[in-house]
Fold this sequence. Notes:
globular; 276 residues; D-Maltodextrin-Binding Protein, domain 2; five-stranded mixed beta sheet; 39% helix
Amino acid sequence: MSDQSLASTLRATLSMYDMEGPVREANDRLWTALAQRLRKGGLSVSDALDRKSHYHAVWSEPDLIFSQTCGYPYVMELRDRVRLVATPIYEFKGGEGTERASFVIAHEAHPGRTLEDFRGRRAAINDWMSNSGMNLFRAALAPLAKGQPFLGSIMVSGGHVASIDAVRDGLAEIASVDTVTWGLLEKHAPERLAGVRIVAETPRGPGLPFITRGATSDEELALIQSALADVIGDSANAAILAALGLKGVAILTDGDYQRLDDFRRQAEEQGYPTLA
Length: 276
């Protein structure tokens, strides 16, 4: 292993899906199992996940050994600053293999049944740099927009669960939410989905990848990938994986994620460069 790896304790985050309760407990146990294997391989890694740092800032930190990022920030900002480890395969609807869509949702009492029915309405997104909340939503609306604003207004909720809450509470009429978040709520907190329904599914693209710092060597990367595969393949971790809805991982390339930027380019070509 490199001198940099051994000089200090490397940290990990799993903030993308870390809702309190069984999911957070499973993330802790997943990291414990992974950390044990990384230490056996010679890496000095933290005992616990970092939940104090802002998830976006951590992605570029030089002491990051393991995290998960959104695909759109990866292609737009992080390509030269992190390395791809693997892409999760989830059991939830709204995707197959490493491919994930977003669910466009509305209040169950809203009369709209298609995306066109929400022209001029107020939308909620979690973040302007979100693939599931913004980029895939834009890709779904671009053919309908025909070069003109489609939505009446947009509110930034700060998170997918908050976007669901905004639709249920009448603060927005439509939202684009991550299908893994939706699946985790269906599994662990179905009451949080009461009052909302799925209107449409966006185009699909590669899901949120696990990443490590850009300075990670090829040898270290292979160790992380092997350790992760070992954790997922260990039957002793079946309950952890079930809680996370995690079926496996696949190793994708930077080129595989280019498709998320292609959605942006295609929207621009259709005269809809910005979600509006």
